[in-house]
Amino acid sequence: MYPIGTPGQPWGEEEKKQWLAAQSVKRSYADEVLSQLDGMPDYFSVIQYGALPYDESRYPLYALLPRQPIADAPWVLVTGGVHGYETSGVQGALLFAREYSQAYTDKINLIVVPCVSPWGYETINRWDPLAIDPNRSFYPDSPAPESKLLMDFIGAMAQEFLLHIDLHETTDTDNSEFRPALAARDAIEQKAWEIPDGFYLVADAKAPHLPLQQAIINEVKKVTHIAPTDENGLIIGAEVPSEGVICYDKRKLFLCGGFNNATYCSTTEVYPDSPSATPEICNRAQVAAVEGALQHLLK
């Protein structure tokens, strides 16, 4: 039983306050994320697009934009840290921008948003301080500031995006903490499934573009292993139409990967708790995913 709330009753404001009081800062957004923005290639301008209202000075939000966009070149959006606790989503986005983006900046206009949820990054949380999941909150007038500020920023741009790749992780704490918390908050039952040992992708059910997803998988294989299916042939309860790929209706679920109507989209899921994983492997798997997508689209 989750330690907050009454079984069978959704949380009210008091329970949400109890949950928030139990959270604590475990790492520094300034030291681990903001400090890296000064070392980006000259291709990028570092733009502040907002700040989280919980503490605007502590949680400014930044995006990397092309300093001089290329006319008629496609636009690509890379997002990380929508779930702040998913470390390689943030660090992988930064690593790609700093060390690998130069191979593509003469062909593609890149926008990188490395940490959408910095409070979640510092406290190692899936939710924001309001006990809201930002990755279920990409809809008009969203109550999650993380989601709303990103939607407002990207939505104000005139260009259309060819690709949006959203960098995530699936961790053991999904089963030990975050899904039990969700069950308690909403007074719902959560189906049990084993955490897959390996990398997988979430494609959009309405437009899965499986050749793109397979190109990503093939590139990531060079860095880490791909998640096998479980005994029922599923990954986290979902069917697998292509190796290491499941599909969600991203717009229906209000996921970050579906909010901007990009022609192609993919959501990565790295498994950092694997016995064979290291932080470096996880970060480089995220880079490989971005590179696999870009190389496929440029063919």
From TrEMBL:
The keyword Disulfide bond does not apply. The keyword Metal-binding applies. Its cofactor is Zn(2+). One of its GO terms (molecular function) is hydrolase activity, acting on ester bonds. InterPro entries: AstE_AspA_cat (IPR055438), Peptidase_M14 (IPR000834). GO terms for biological process: proteolysis. Belongs to the peptidase M14 family. This is Peptidase. It comes from Alteromonas alba. The lineage of its organism: Bacteria, Pseudomonadati, Pseudomonadota, Gammaproteobacteria, Alteromonadales.
